Amino acid sequence: MKLVKLISILALTVGLLWAEPINLSGKKDGYDVNLVSEKSLVVGDNIFYVTLSKDGKALEDAKVKAKFFMPEMPGMPYMEQVGKAELVDGKYKILINFSMGGTWQYHLMFKTADGEVHKIRSSVNL
Ligand SMILES: [Cu+2]
């Protein structure tokens, strides 16, 4: 029992040390959405890049923003960070500052030229 515990602690530690950058892909309303982080996530500044495409064609005229938030917890208020993207070399670049480790939920929103707002909900850990 102790050994199992030790192994899982080791596995967790290695997992944290070797945390990979985020790379998430999905589809929303016919758009292909990819979210990557420049590096593995840290407390402090993090840079995310979002790419959007439809039917294999890159979409570079959307308005993109992301909201990362953590619900209120005992002894801790609700926390939120909103980042507005700027288009850099075909990618939407977003700066997010995480004030603490843990699980951050996010809403990734993009407004397309037709005025529609599309929203993806997920979460990241750091
Ligand atoms: Cu928290």
From TrEMBL:
Origin: domain of life: Bacteria
InterPro entries given in the database record: YtkA-like_dom
Pfam families recorded: YtkA (PF13115)
UniProt domain YtkA-like: residue ranges: 27-108
Name of the protein this chain belongs to: YtkA-like domain-containing protein
Species this protein is from: Arcobacter arenosus
